[in-house]
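can u pls check wat happens w/ 2-(butylsulfanyl)adenosine
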Amino acid sequence: MKEDIIQEIEHLRERIKYHNYRYHVLDDPEIIDSEYDKLFRRLQLMERENPELINPDSPTQKIGEAPLKTFDPVKHSQPMLSLENAFTDQEIKEFDARLKRLNNSSSPIEYVVEPKMDGLAIELVYEEGRLSVASTRGDGFTGENVTENIKTIPAVPNNLLYKEGNNNDIPGLLEVRGEVYMEKRDFEELNRTRLSEGLTLFANPRNAAAGSLRQLDPEVTKKRRLNMFCYGTGIISDYKVDTYYETMLFLQGLGLRINMEHMKLCSSIDEVIEQCHYLETGRDGFLFEMDGAVIKVNRLDLQEKFGIKTRSPRWAIARKFKPVQVMTKIRDIEVQVGRTGALTPVALLDPVEVGGVTVRRATLHNKEEIEKKDIRVFDSVIIQRAGDVIPEVVESVKSKRTGIEKVFSFPDKCPVCGANVLKKANEVVIRCPNMKCPAQLNAGLRHFVSKGAMDIDGLGERIITQLIDKGFIKQGVDIYRLNKERLLQLEKIEAKSANNILTAISESRKTTFARFIYALGIRHVGEHIASIIADHFKTIDALKEADEEELLSIKEVGPQIAESIVSYFSDEANVSHVESLINEDIQFEESEYNSKSPIAGKTIVVTGTLNRMKRDEIKDFIIRNGGRVASNVGKGTDMLITGDEPGSKLDRARELGIQIINEEGFFNMFS
Ligand code: IVH
């Protein structure tokens, strides 16, 4: 019996060590985090039940993995620790109860809750205010010297700032720790470029960040748009404050990037739990990937009192969120034709919940990806859904194959119109070349009428298909030329629904510049980029004239997007479509209107239940009037609009001294 236990423990240790190596050293994990967590927990449990079998070589006693040989080793003066995980609210309560016992007091402990960034831990050492060394965590004691690469990250200052009122001078020695990560949209853009260049895709933003940082050539790192938030310290000379929160404010004052916007002080464990839920529910709206929340004891004397265990502090814990990667099975593969004619293979899946949403389909990107990753029908696969990104198949799990899996043969004809498909030499995408292919027209028009674009209610796929089949519409502008007589020729359309459609069409004429740009369906220009571009150019004429250089000067616009916009407006047919839309009386406010607006350029957050407008409507109203809408209150917020029963955003706004206005007061500004 004991033999079995010893054997299982040994087996678990071997597997965990192997996966640690793939994750920490190669940046190429083979299993998803939740599977790894399961193995780790099993080992922890078995060791707890058989403490005599614990040995210092067990992964439960270690932090990461020994560093790669390619970078010079750097010894950390204090170990860089890991965190215990909690997977349920109950485990957070137990954490709190444990600490209260250690504190010999039942009085509440104050905590800070903040996002757990999904990137890689880095230590920065500043000597006399200058960045001297930056290193990875490695095995917790020795990491890799990545100073030159870290210096390419704009969020990392080379020199600390001396700021009046910071109460402290710049410390002679400052060791600060934080997470280097990649924002979701930079990750998507990077993968989009890699996809079009036929390179292997990064599985997630964390791997992309790790792979980008651990490059021997800092020039490569520089191009990758990495970012960093600091969340901890090693040694700080001549410095004394009482709390973690104050330490973070101090670091912020020195010019380091701290996620104060999403850091919350909580005076009870229930508040902690509530804040974790708030972060988890809102995670899709964040610019970065979060795999959980970190809960830390705020008082530094208590942190010291509670101390550390082998690999993690007792005073902090990570509340892990539902995984965004899960395993399921492919039932079949279908090929879709998009608005640019691109043939996209889509996996039809055994339905599975990913981060709170049921997923039935996931993109396989293109033929080359399927082949490179050797993904077959009936394979078990890892799928991922992050934010508003379309779910995708990350890889197939070869060890689960039973022999029934079938290699997918990609069609050589368009599955919709039957045209022979084409592949350009410099592209990986296979396309249907038939501009009149009903699938292309249909997808383009569905995009044109979609919610974030012209927002025409009632024009679903079925109706659009009929309108195309009858030759009534070929492009967006034709929708504005529809009349009742034509609509009544469609199946199941009666006078009432025809009228509704015509009203929706007519109402859509009043729109915003951003929506209009998005509706045009320019490749790589999503809703977010469209609004950035609208903000920058203000008028359609200015946008039409834009060259790549000007476009590239806009933050967040990369070469692929710039090239795509220029090429869109260099096509006569597109320009004439845009002009005919304007001639059809499509109206959107341009710069003049916005700059006169009382909220022009302001970042606004809305909280509570509104009476006059729905959430979507007020959002549109703000954007139409030149404002920006944010989902969370932070330093960058200019105004908070409160409805009935405002939530914690109100407290936060008060804390930060942000202008607070109720719904009525807000609309009065416009009268
Ligand atoms: S604190 C002593 N705070 O999570 C506490 N870690 O599993 C050390 N991480 O190695 C970590 N966001 O790479 C802390 N806000 C945050 C974090 C965070 C991400 C990572 C970090 C650490 C790992 C622990």
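The chain has five domains: 2-61, 73-320, 325-407, 438-585, 594-668.
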